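Weekly puzzle thread! Below is a chain. First person to post its structure in C-alpha cell form gets bragging rights.
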Amino acid sequence: MDARAPRARAALLAAVRLLRERGTPTSGETALALVVIGGRGSSWDEVWRSELAALRDHEDHDTAMAALLVDPEAGN
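Winning reply:
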C-alpha cells in the first residue's frame, strides 16, 4: 500500500481512528497494522507516533503490548 499520497494518508488515518475507537481486539490489531503502514510511509510523522501512543493504551492488552513492541526509530 502506498501511504505517501496525502489522500491515501488521510483515508488511512480515518480508518485507524475509527478502528481504534471500537476498542475490540480485532479492530485494535487492524489499527496497529495500518499505523505501521502509515508510519513507515511517512517516516513516522508525529500523527502516526500519536496514533501508536494511543494504541499503547488500548483496552485490549494484546493490542497494547504489540504496540509497545513497535519501534519507529528502528524502522518497524
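Puzzle host: Confirmed. Bonus trivia for everyone else. The chain is about 70% helix and 0% strand.
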